[in-house]
Specification:
mainly alpha, Four Helix Bundle (Hemerythrin (Met), subunit A)
């Protein structure tokens, strides 16, 4: 019995240590430089990269506003009893906000793709556009 208990405690300690170490290592990664990734992945020249960086800078506040509206509406929706008129209204507002966000982001992605070489722009839209279609508006849309 003592041996079984000792083995179980050792296995538990090893598992917890492995889990903690994995979480710590994952949190130590440096944030990805999205523009560096775009430059490399889509073979952007300096002019293309600069123009896309300007587009991203202009779109950032628009995206932030969309996210803030979605988060506020999601929080309000969570506090309402399901089936009530207020809940139905907030759910409709959430759908509308998600649609506005998706359409706006789609236009932004198309503007970015238009600055790339045509084949790279198509590849970019195929890669990122698929992420947009599956996006649930619970977090920002990542490039990768």
């Amino acid at each position: 019995m003592k041996i079984l208990l000792s083995c179980a405690l050792i296995a538990l300690a090893a598992g917890l240590t492995s889990f903690g170490l994995t979480r710590w290592v994952a949190s130590q990664r440096a944030p990805a430089d999205e523009m560096a990734w775009l430059r490399q992945e889509f073979a952007l020249n300096a002019q293309q990269a600069e123009a896309i960086a300007r587009l991203h800078a202009r779109y950032g506040p628009v995206c932030d506003e969309h996210c803030a509206n979605v988060m506020a509406t999601r929080q309000r929706l969570a506090g309402l009893p399901p089936g009530t008129p207020a809940h139905v209204e907030a759910a409709a507002e959430m759908e509308s906000l998600a649609r506005v966000c998706s359409e706006s982001t789609r236009r932004h992605l198309e503007a970015v793709a238009a600055l790339m070489d045509p084949a790279q722009g198509e590849r970019y839209l195929a890669l990122i556009g698929g992420k947009l279609a599956a996006h649930n508006h619970a977090e920002p849309l990542g490039l990768r």
